[in-house]
Amino acid sequence: MNPPGSLADVDPNLDEHLSTQILAPSVHSDNPQERIQARRLRIAARLEARRREALGEYLDGKKESEEDRSKSYKQKEESRLKLAKLLLCGTELVTNIQVAIDTREIHRRVEEEEIKRQRIEKLENEVKTSQDKFDEITSKWEEGKQKRIPQELWEMLNTQQLHCAGLLEDKNKLISELQQELKTKDDQYVKDLKKQSDDICLLLERMEQQVKNVMKTFREELYNIEKAFEVERQELLASNKKKWERALQAHNAKELEYLTNRMKKVEDYEKQLNRQRIRDCEEYNTIKIKLEQDVQILEQQLQQRKAIYQLNQEKLEYNLQVLKKRDEESTVIKSQQKRKINRLRDTLNNLRSKYAKQIKQFQEENQSLTLDYQSLVLQFKELQKAMRHFALIDDKKFREIWLMNEEEAKDLIARAFDVDRIIHTHHLGLPWTAPDFWFLKNVGPISQQPQKSATQIVEEMLMHTEEEEAEEAASEPESYLDLPKQISEKTTKRILMLLCDESGFLVESKLLSLLLPLEQNECYLLRLDAIFSALGIESEDDLYKLVNFFLKYRAHRLSSSLQIKSCSQASVEKASMEETSMGSELELAEQTEMEGEKEESLVEGEKEEEEETPPSPWVIHPNDVIKILEAFVMGLKKPRDSRAPPRVQKNVRNNSKDSEYWQALTTVIPSSKQNLWDALYTALEKYHIVLTQRAKLLQENSSLEQQNTELQVLLQQYLNSKINSELQVPPTQVLRVPKK
Amino acid sequence: MQDTVTTSALLDPSHSSVSTQDKSSTGGHTSSTGPQLSKPSITPVPAKSRNPHPGANFHRMRRIIAEDPEWSLAIVPLLTELCIQHIIRNFQKNPILKQMLPEHQQKVLNHLSPDLPLAVTANLIDNENYWLRCCMQRWPVCHVAHHGGSWKRMFFERHLENLLKHFIPGTTDPAVILDLLPLCRNYVRRVHVDQFLPPVRLPAQLRPGDQSDSGSEGEMEEPTVDHYQLGDLVAGLSHLEELDLVYDVKDCGMNFEWNLFLFTYRDCHSLAAAIKACHTLKIFKLTQSKVDDDKARIIIRSLLDHPVLEELDLSHNLIGDRGARGAAKLLSHSRLRVLNLANNQVRAPGAQSLAHALAHNTNLISLNLRLNCIEDEGGQALAHALQTNKCLTTLHLGGNELSEPTATLLSQVLAINTTLTSINLSCNHIGLDGGKQLLEGMSDNKTLLEFDLRLSDVAQESEYLIGQALYANREAARQRALNPSHFMSTITANGPENSVG
Q1: Cβ distance of B495 and A229 shorter than 8 Å
Q2: End-to-end Cα distance, chain A
Q3: A248 to chain B nearest CA, in Å?
Q4: Which A-chain residues 281-310 have CB contacts (< 8 A) with chain B?
Q5: Distance between CA atoms of B53 and B50, rounded to whole angstroms?
Q6: Potential cystine with B134: which of A512, A599, B114, B357 (Cβ 3.0-4.6 Å)?
Q7: pTM, to two decimals
Q8: Which residues contact B111 (CB under 8 A, 6 or more apart)?
């Protein structure tokens, strides 16, 4: 009930607030947003007003009843207090008895304790005295036993009896006293019981009284409260009724007002209706006339339309006729077409069957072809095999032919050279030098020499060095291998040894254990193999690169320390093995001579200069080996990647140089020389002719001489013959024999 | 009117023919004869005399005059009704209840006799109405509120109580109680027995004097005066929460003997074992049973570390300082909330030990030491303990020979403590000065609601003023209870609201 009241309290403020707000946005504003806002506010205000109407009255009534309510509340509070007090007092009254009994009990206990204490004391005293007495008596018994005289004994017995009687009396007295006390206690107990029962009675009485009282007062208070509420309710009802009546009256008045308003409005509307009717009638008439005119026009138009229709109908009939004819024609065409279709269908069927046949045929064909294909593949494979075989054979044949041709050519060349030499020496009297051409040394077909693997080279190298060591004195330092890059074998070997020692970590431990029993060289070889495989060095070039790299590195180091170069050089020269350095220098010299014309770059020269300083492996510090290796591996990576493809084409022979080779073979004798030869030839020809003439002449001469001699002989014979003598005239006489 | 309707419905076949025959004539007639039809034995004569149409009447007469003079128009009872009657009659032999519809169950239960054997009804019937009738039949006064508002529970508890009250060891068959056990074990929560009969001893009558005189003989006889051993019973009751025992004999009349009132060591031991085994026990009361220090200690030892025990009442016994020390130990070894040692023989040392335990206790809310003799030493110790205790709300120190020094300390406690709501110092010797000091302490206290100072030599004026202070505290507490959040501001607002509602 309270919340609406409090809300109503707040409402007026809210309303005022709203009314002020309504002023701000206007319904007639240009801004649509504002207008919407204004309308909303207006609706809200109306609702609010209605609500306030309802609540406001309620609030008024409530305010009026506030006092009454507080009255009832007061009544309630009053009765509550009264009842609480009553209850409290009543309980106090009832419990008072208990408390009183408690105190009495406490007092009794205290007294009892005191009495008990006294009694115990008394009893103890009594015990003591009676014990004394008893002792006395018992001691006297002893005395009595010694007495012999009866009178004395009797006397003593009498006194003893008296004593005992006294003692007994004392005891009896005590007992009676105690019994007396017990009796009084019993009486007391009975009294106490009585009293307690009285108390209990009182307690019950009071409780009953209390209950009655409480009931009565509760009832009364309830009645009072109810009455208060009743009164309040009545008042509330009355006020509400009054309010209701007032509201009803207001409602009635308003209703009446509405009614009169309505009546007035009805009359108004009636008048308006009449006026409207008249106006409408006039309007109706004018419209009617207008419409009739329209109808006439339309009828005319209708007639026209009809005529047009007639015309159209005739036209259409004619068209129909035409179309019918066309239809007939079309039926004829249709039948024709049908027939055609049938024919075409037949052909289609035929074609289909043909097609099926064809398919079958092609399938068969396909099968046969696949079989063929398989056989062909087999054949092809065989062919390939054969081809390979033939290729090999061809190769071989080629090689053989090549060799043969070459041999032939070489023979020819040799002969040419011989001839040349002979010409030079014999005929021209010039000294002859054999021309030196690269192709002369070539044996077999020209091809890129297969690259040797690094390990092979190393192996070879090691072998050589070993040999060298073996016949150190005998063999002069000479490179068996064609190590091209100005590096001596020993240097290389040393570098490799160093590498082998320093980068043992690249070798697997297992391998190391396996290597132990082997020979030193083999051991080195295997270890190097492992290291190379770890570093990725495969070919000869790589190996030389590595060695070069080492040397460059060292050179770099050296150039950085140029000032101490001389002294170091001296020391190094002393320290290093002279032979090796000498050998390397010699070798270098040779090679530079041989290739000096080709290599003219400054870098090379510089390098050579550097190389001249004896390359000693000791200059490279073992500690640097790892760094160098690292740098090398980093550098090696790039070229390595682009190496794969050329391998594939290895089988294809490069015959570009062949013609050149053969050409070169043909031109082994230069043209100048040929010219010379030609000149020589013509000269010799002439010379020959002369000589032949001379020979002929000589022959003639000799034959003539022979004839001469023969003739002389014949003559002699004749002369000497007997016939001659016989003859009348001897010829000899006739003849004048030539005198010598 | 209802009668006419029913009868007409019943007599439909014949009556309809009548109504068709003379509808117009009997229009008003039926209404007049209607009520009479309900008494068929009387109707024929007036109907005959009144009815002007004999033809129509003939049918009706034939209808109404039955051959059976006892013919009645009462409704033949429904078959279900008959079945229910039968079930009620034979309930003892064939108890059918759970299978029936609820309404029929209700009917059966309303008509069952309360005298049915418990073996049949105990676990079958839960209806409170039935047990209400059972209780009302057996006992004239029934306070169902004392038994948790359950009539069934009340019936079983009181039944068990009756059996225990009249159990005579050695004479009564123990099976009487043990047979009941399976029936009542789920319903009994509280056992309240205010007498235990000793075994009957015929020869004992010959020498009552000897027993009262000589302790030695009494001790020899003691085993024979043991009471009923509660062990089996307590172990059997699975929901037992309260045990309220008084080892006493009522209405002994002229057969009075001192040893009727003995609480023997064996009783004590068996009781201790029983309560130790009972883990559901919350309230244990053993009053007016001559429990002395040793027995109290035996019982308290069995209660140490009991899981749920909340209330211990050993009032009206003979417990001295040693027993009080035992109780103090129990305070620190259990969850005891209420301890009652009223009317015992606790003196200053016992009170001091209790105070020591109380100083750091957080469970105990009520302590009753009425009618002991703790005197100022004990009172001061307790007051010191209350300065640190934050749990105790009720303290009864009535009749303890306390005087001014205790009052001085208590007044300091009153100023500090905010948990105490009730103190009773009646029947002490507080004195005028003590009263003034208490008044001073009271002026700083806002929580105390009851403070009893009757018969303690306090000046009327200070008692009155203390009463005023208590009244103010009570009002404040009431407001707090009405609306805990904002009690002061809404007093005026509350009033009208309540009155309207």
Answers
A1: no
A2: 200
A3: 25
A4: none
A5: 9
A6: B114
A7: 0.51
A8: B84, B85, B88
